[in-house]
Each structure stands twice: as C-alpha cells, then as structure tokens.
From TrEMBL:
Keywords noted in UniProt: Membrane, Transmembrane, Transmembrane helix
Organism in which the protein naturally occurs: Ectobacillus ponti
Segments traversing the membrane: 6-24
Keyword Transmembrane: yes
UniProt protein name: YtxH domain-containing protein
Residue spans of biased composition, Low complexity class: 117-136
Annotated stretches, region: Disordered: 111-141
Domain of life where this protein originates: Bacteria
C-alpha cells in the first residue's frame, strides 16, 4: 500500500515540477493566462445567460421530435400520393363514362325537344305554344356536365404522367 502512495506522490511532484518549468517561459504564461480568461468568460456567460446548456439540449431534443413528426407526416402524404396515382386511371375512366352518359341523356333530351316542336299543331299561334319541359332538363344536364368536364381536364395531365410511368415500368420488366 505504501508503494502505491509513493507512486502517486511522485507523479504529483513530477506534474508540479513540469508545470513550474513550463511557466518559466513568458509565452507559455501568456497563453495559459489567455486560456484561463476565456474559460472564465464562458463559465460566466453560461451561468448568467438566460439559456443554459440544459435548455439548449432540451430545445434540440424538442426540435428533433418535431422534425421526426414532420417526416412521418410527409411519408404518409407520399403514400397517399402513390395511392392516388394508382387510382387516377380508374377515376378518369369513370369520369369519361359519366360524361358519355350525360352526353347521351342530353342528346335524348334534345331529340325529344325537337320531336315535341315538330308535333305542335299548325293552327296554334307561336305565342300560345308552351315551352317544352325538356329545356329545364337540358339546362340541368349541361349544369351537371360542367364539374365533370373540369375534373376530367384536371385529371388528364396526371393520367398522361401515369401512363408514361407505366410504359417505362413495362419496358423495364421486359
């Protein structure tokens, strides 16, 4: 036990002598004094500053958590976008079918309207001829077609992009 105590004592003496020899040079004394001043200033700033190191770490952890939540939300949005891209051709096809049905109905209404105007008796004055009821149906059909046409126009670029991507995938698999 006494041997360990002697070793520790001798090491401490060696360190003290080495520090004393180092301090003999003026440059070393100035560098050490400058470093001590800088360290003292930093310690005072951290002690007096409104934001401590602990607060900085806590803020960093909160920021990291917020960023990870944003990334999770972006991942969910990306997955939804992929799903929408896959469903777009079916939606566009449905819209085209709907447009065709509306066009057929509109055509039928116009034909019915023309047929009713052809059946009007010649003896009746033009002022007394009642307006055909099909006019309201035609206006209603045209009004219903506007949103369908707008959605179809908006979906065309996405469909074209999807078609190009699908063609590239098919080429790669072949």
């Amino acid at each position: 036990m006494e041997k360990k105590s002697t070793i520790v004592r001798n090491i401490a003496i060696g360190v003290a002598v080495g520090a004393a020899v180092t301090m003999l040079k003026k440059d070393n004394r100035e560098k050490i004094a400058g470093n001590v001043r800088k360290a003292r200033t930093k310690v005072n700033e951290m002690r007096e500053g409104s934001i401590t190191l602990k607060d900085r770490v806590v803020d960093g952890v909160h920021d990291l958590g917020a960023k990870s939540r944003e990334m999770a939300e972006l991942k969910a949005v990306k997955e939804k976008l992929e799903e929408i891209k896959k469903l777009t051709p079916a939606v566009v096809e449905t819209l085209k079918e709907t447009r065709d049905i509306f066009n057929k109905k509109k055509q039928e209404l116009l034909e019915r309207e023309e047929a009713q105007t052809d059946v009007v008796p010649e003896a009746a004055a033009p002022e007394e001829v009642p307006a055909p009821a099909a006019t309201e149906d035609t206006a209603e059909a045209e009004g219903l077609m506007q949103p369908v046409l707008a959605v179809e126009e908006a979906a065309e670029p996405v469909l074209e992009t999807n078609t190009e991507a699908t063609e590239e995938e098919m080429k790669q698999t072949v």
